[in-house]
Amino acid sequence: MKAKVYVTIKENVLDPQGNAVQGALHSLGFGEVAKVRIGKFMEVELDTADRGQAERQLKEMCEKLLANTVVEDYRFELEG
Amino acid sequence: MKAKVYVTIKENVLDPQGNAVQGALHSLGFGEVAKVRIGKFMEVELDTADRGQAERQLKEMCEKLLANTVVEDYRFELEG
């Protein structure tokens, strides 16, 4: 079973990496760029066919390792 | 106009960060994790209402800065 995990910085937390990329885009002539926020996109393959189990495990993985829930939000989608 | 940009490592390119995360997940007891690939997820706000222009600009931004097209693929979605 495949999952897609999205980890994003919480709305009220500063994103210096995003600000740097926004500045670089402005320097390259993309003046219309009003905001950039950078997060992570992870593809995880699980050796299980049990959807409920996969969801429970993904939630636990996100809480324990994949996201820092103090400053980041996460969500995931299961495929197939 | 808001866009979501996904940058992923090409299928035939090694992903040491993904392998490290997979190893860490195994150490935490998630033995079912068969594969992890890590990419980037970017939210970009553009000060334009012209969808065609936004698409052209996003493509150019990805080619020039957001993705390294030698080893990474990208795709984006425009909202609203």
UniProtKB/TrEMBL annotation, chains A, B:
It is an enzyme of class 6 (ligase). It comes from the Bacteria. Keywords: ATP-binding, Cytoplasm, Ligase, Nucleotide-binding, Purine biosynthesis. SUPFAM superfamilies: PurS-like. InterPro entries: PurS, PurS-like_sf. Its EC number is 6.3.5.3. It is found in: Cytoplasm. GO terms for biological process: 'de novo' IMP biosynthetic process. One of its GO terms (molecular function) is ATP binding. One of its GO terms (cellular component) is cytoplasm. It holds the Pfam family PurS. The keyword Ion transport does not apply. The keyword Ligase applies. It catalyses: N(2)-formyl-N(1)-(5-phospho-beta-D-ribosyl)glycinamide + L-glutamine + ATP + H2O = 2-formamido-N(1)-(5-O-phospho-beta-D-ribosyl)acetamidine + L-glutamate + ADP + phosphate + H(+). Pathway: Purine metabolism; IMP biosynthesis via de novo pathway; 5-amino-1-(5-phospho-D-ribosyl)imidazole from N(2)-formyl-N(1)-(5-phospho-D-ribosyl)glycinamide: step 1/2. Part of the phosphoribosylformylglycinamidine synthase complex involved in the purines biosynthetic pathway. Catalyzes the ATP-dependent conversion of formylglycinamide ribonucleotide (FGAR) and glutamine to yield formylglycinamidine ribonucleotide (FGAM) and glutamate. The FGAM synthase complex is composed of three subunits. PurQ produces an ammonia molecule by converting glutamine to glutamate. PurL transfers the ammonia molecule to FGAR to form FGAM in an ATP-dependent manner. NCBIfam families: phosphoribosylformylglycinamidine synthase subunit PurS, PRK05974.1. Belongs to the PurS family. Part of the FGAM synthase complex composed of 1 PurL, 1 PurQ and 2 PurS subunits. This is Phosphoribosylformylglycinamidine synthase subunit PurS. It comes from Cohnella pontilimi.
